[in-house]
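Fold this sequence, please.
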Amino acid sequence: MREAIHVIDEEIVQLPYSTSRDAVENYKKLANKSLYKCPYCEAKLIVKFGDIKGLYFSHQHSEACEESRKIDRAEKRYEKQNERETKIHKVLVDIIYDELSIKAKINPNVIVNYGYKANPSYKYYPDISVKVNDRAYSISVITNVSPSQDSKLAQDIINRHEYFVEQGLEPIWFIEMKEQSIELEKNSMVLWDAELAISAKTKEDERWDRLIEENMKDSMFFKYFNYPSTTLNKEIDVRSLYYIFSTEDKLIVKVQRFLKDRIVRPYRAFLLNRGYEISFSEALVIDDGFKLSNPDIDLQLRNHFNEILIQKKKEHEEQLRQENERKQIHLKELEERRTSFTPSEENFTYSDLKVLLKHRIGLTQKEQMELWSKYMLSSVGPKNSKLVWELVLEHDCHSFNELKAILDKRKI
């Protein structure tokens, strides 16, 4: 039978491994030898068995100690706090607890407990409380994020986060993997309110800050990545999210870093990379606190980011060169057409005039309509198109306004 740790009303309950008559009698004999004690008051515990509760521990005379009662009340508040979570929430929390408990067994400086047991008097409870030397951490898992609940959840998370900090805890948040939403073609990440609220700032994020700050001196930075940036001169603030999911044999953490950008809905951030996965035991390596990442992988990703950026700059420069080359070819073709176009003296038409004016002064559709209605149909006459062209050449006109001034002055 496991250690008695779960409090319900006045009794400390232990779920049985067996409810056979022999098993019950065996547990009772062990209890009579004072083998089982209350983890809070050290009082002797007896073993009871009933049809409703099954096999369970109890204080003698069913008088639970005050500490047991506190834990019981705290557990109920904790369950109330997590009513919105999915069933996977408890599974993930238990896996994390087991993983950290293994670390605690080999490291005497690590103390692990469920949040409501670590301090029953808390207003808000982390799922797990961890103490490493003189530093205390709150570990919480978020599941079931949806548009209808997101804003309320985000405010609840902010309240909990701030409360944990006030209590001297360093908050660590994990979010269920299925909540991640990225747009690779735009190199962007769409965030829920809750995701933005639990994003962290670590030493690795600060290293990314310095890299991005240097490269953002280039005004084309976001355009290289096809990212729809909202501002040009933004504060450099790389942050992290830790997505969590379980496989058949272990718990996996996906480390995702992003550059915070648009903080009005829909929240959007610049995606630095696709993130990387590490085992949970690796994420919570204890080295002056929890690492939560792999520095070697982050260094590789920063180097890779630089390589991609250099390549995108080259591609952009080549694109500009090709566009400029096409533009020069187009201008050359227009010039050749302008210089080679020589309408016959006898059959010079208004259509010929339009072509010549378009090449010489860039005659627009609107200007063409004004030329026709105001001048050609009245004072000039359609048959005098050649005369208009001769005036353009004579006065070296380079704009429609210059041509109009001449036509108005001459009153043809």
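Residues 295-340 form the longest helix (46 residues). Residues 1-18 have pLDDT under 50 and may be disordered.
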